[in-house]
Amino acid sequence: MPALPFVPRLLLATLSFLTALSVHAEGKPRIVWTVRDMPPFSILEGPRKGQGVVDKMLALLRTDMPQYEHILSVANRARANQMVNNGVLTCDPGMLWSEERAKQLYFSIPTLGILTNGVVVRKADEAELAPFIKGGEFDLASFIQDSRYTLGTLVERSYGQQIDAALKQAKPNVLVVHHGIEATLSLLRMQQHQRLTAVLGYWPELHYQGEAAGISLNDLSFYSVQGVPTYQMGYVACTRSPEGLQAIKDINLTVRRLREGEVIKLYADWLDGATRDAYLKAAKGFFNE
Hints:
By secondary structure, the protein is an alpha/beta fold. It contains twelve helices and 13 strands.
């Protein structure tokens, strides 16, 4: 039987999720885990399906927490943000901390250090964008004040506190916010057709999506954002309820064991050459609590 296309499978997964909520396992608390297609963290399609960093970390968490019933639910960031506030114990295995989110969710200890988001531009546009490229970094704050250009982003995704704060100052119509499925890939394709000047995101994610779609990576350049640290921490976040707090306590016990070895290696395997070496060196200081 041929596989269903992604959209029907997403609808089927949602229906399965709703059905599962109505049949609670007796005496065993349930965690609904929200996941989305976001290589190299979660991979829902293609030959490396289930091989993402968060995919593997979540598998380890589930194995190490048999006292819970674990359910996976595919949801984009906007839908996931709704789910963690709907009263059902829901956790997201890959979230950035922010003051605003911390008022609504319980956060685990840091699970993983990752490269921060940056900006991808077409090499053909670099000469025109030279005023925004300084010392190998991209002056995002100035770029989003220039209404001649556009920047592709994803709906309700956090890019880290500093970048999020900068985006709030963007001039009207500079930000192009994608709400759909395969959003990162769609933004890259829009850029290829010169409908976007730049795309904001994680380089490993952009690299994977572009390569899988046959986009020539030799035609693209990635720049870190000026003034933003090289690395940022990822967390597990759960519903802000007594059940969510207990889940976070249990998750922390597992994370302390996983993050010193397995999780760092899982992420490092997606990096190349000098970037990987620098990451492994920096990782030794990620979790000095």
